[in-house]
Design goal:
alpha/beta; globular; 136 residues; Rossmann fold; 7 helices
C-alpha cells in the first residue's frame, strides 16, 4: 500500500518518532511525503521515502492529485491544533480522503490504530480500490 506522510513543523519530530516505532510495518509499504517531513523520516529510519515538493512549493497539491486518483491508501497528517497555518491544506486533504474513502489520521492516537490495522490486514480492502498495490 502507499502511505503519505505530512506534518506541521511542530509535529515533524513526533512523525519521526512514530516512524521509528513502526518502521517494521512501514518498511512493507511504499512511503511518500512532502519534502522536509520525508527527508527527516528517511534520514532517521532508513526507510525509502518518495519525496514530493515541500508544502510551500506545492507538495500538498501533489499529494492531493494522487488522492484524487485514488493512488494513496493511507494518509498520516500530524497537525498542530494550536496553529492555523495548515488549515487550508488539512481541509483539502481531509476532503479528498473522505471523497475516496482513504483512511486518514491527524494525530498519533489515530495513526497508531491505522498502522495496527494495516499490520493485521484490516485495510486490505484498499487492494480492491487500488489494485496496483495488491502485487506488493
Amino acid at each position: 500500500m502507499t502511505i503519505a506522510l505530512m506534518a506541521a513543523d511542530s509535529k515533524k519530530e513526533l512523525m519521526v518518532q512514530f516512524c521509528i516505532a513502526y518502521c517494521g510495518i512501514l518498511a512493507q509499504h511504499e512511503i511518500c511525503a512532502t519534502a522536509s517531513t520525508g527527508r527527516l523520516v528517511a534520514d532517521n529510519t532508513g526507510l525509502p521515502v518518495h519525496l514530493y515538493l515541500s508544502h510551500a512549493h506545492g507538495g500538498t497539491e501533489q499529494i492531493g492529485a494522487l488522492l484524487k486518483l485514488n493512488e494513496i491508501d493511507l494518509v498520516l497528517f500530524f497537525t498542530d491544533p494550536a496553529s492555523d497555518a495548515l488549515v487550508d491544506d488539512l481541509n483539502q486533504i481531509s476532503t479528498l480522503c473522505d471523497a475516496n474513502s482513504i483512511p486518514f489520521a491527524t494525530n498519533i492516537a489515530t495513526a497508531e490504530i491505522l498502522i495496527q490495522g494495516l499490520k493485521y490486514g484490516d485495510l486490505d480492502w484498499r487492494n480492491i480500490v487500488n489494485p496496483k498495490n495488491s502485487k506488493k
